[in-house]
User: Fold succinate dehydrogenase from Knoellia aerolata DSM 18566.
Amino acid sequence: MNLTLKIWRQTGPDDTGGLVTYRMSDISPDMSFLEMLDVLNEKLNANGEEPIAFDSDCREGICGMCGLMISGHAHGPERTTTCQLHMRSFKNGDTITVEPWRAEAFPIVRDLVVDRGGLDRIIQAGGYISANTGSAPDAHATPVPKDNADRAFMAAECIGCGACVAACPNASGMLFLGAKITHLGELPQGQPERDARVVSMVGQHDHEGFGGCTNVGACSQACPKGIPQDVISQLNKDLRTALKHGR
Ligand code: FES
Assistant:
């Protein structure tokens, strides 16, 4: 495949940045998108040019490190992570624009790398269970109804990649936040801190500069794990209940 890439280059947070055009030839349709960028970086290195900075780790769709805006779509044209996107999703001769996640709460570090520490700080604000449970109990010692267990597992699939934020016109992190709240809220172990958790995590979300949800639904469509929008309803319900309880 022959492709034209327009890639965002920015030397650092204070640089204004801009799109730079690269022509690629003989790209295998079976390459992943990141492998295609690796090939480009090898060429840039060979020419003594600065390689393009981008994030990745597992390259298996499980860690949430990768994330690019590809021709205006978070993670590209398929519902998957950028590392699991393959070049067969594009046509020979295509022009592909590659940009970093765009959100005030995700400042650009360099090229395609953004600082997603805001998501980590939301977790630090309450996305955990602090009760001392002693040694690991038998798996069946705390019965969890099947429906609750299924919903907790569904919400726990969120890998925190930030695609929901990048896709949202408000740059809201509420799908991410709703997934974390739903995950713990469905389990008995999550009940003692339920009110404090939601108040603290929502406060941190807003403090980080993420926007509010206006029910656009782009977050859920972009989510590589298919987290449904109703976790945001759960989040709002939990917040209302916590405020009623005087939190
Ligand atoms: S690199 Fe881990 S999900 Fe893409």
User: Anything to note?
Assistant: The two ends are 58 Å apart (CA to CA). The longest strand covers residues 3-9. The chain has two domains: 3-110, 116-244.
